[in-house]
Each structure stands twice: as structure tokens, then as C-alpha cells.
Amino acid sequence: MIIRSPQLPGIYMTIFWKIDVSKEGVVKPTLELLLKMPDQARELDTKKVMENGSDYFQSLLRILGVEASIEALIRTVCL
């Protein structure tokens, strides 16, 4: 899934969702967030949001769960 903001061209987020199922039937979902932005915009990111975004997303997953985390991410990008 790729999330892009119309107000911020060149910046996008990609969510990779992998689901592993063991032979015993144990399901283990893995979600990762990759962030992409032009080098010029990266210089303006003084709070290092893009650099640490993947870690922030993993924290959201632990606290809110999958659906709420993705929804929060979409809401943030679309504002």
C-alpha cells in the first residue's frame, strides 16, 4: 500500500504487510513502513520524523493495533 499526500509531492509512505503461517497454523503478521522524500525536503525535517517514522509506526502498531495504526497514518498524511 502506498500513501501519498497531494500537498507534499515527492513524499510517500509504503506499507509492506507480510503474513507468515507456520506448519502448525500459527499466524504471524509483519508490517513495515518505508518513508521516501526528496533530499531537499529531508533537510527541512528538523524533528527527524522521516528518519524515525518506521520506529514510530511500530510503536503505534503495538499500542493501537493494525487497523487503527494505518488509519492514523492516513489521517496524518491527508491533513
Automatic annotation (TrEMBL):
One of its GO terms (cellular component) is nucleus. One of its GO terms (biological process) is CENP-A containing chromatin assembly. InterPro entries: CENP-P (IPR027801). It holds the Pfam family CENP-P. This is Centromere protein P. It comes from Phoxinus phoxinus (Eurasian minnow). The lineage of its organism: Eukaryota, Metazoa, Chordata, Craniata, Vertebrata.
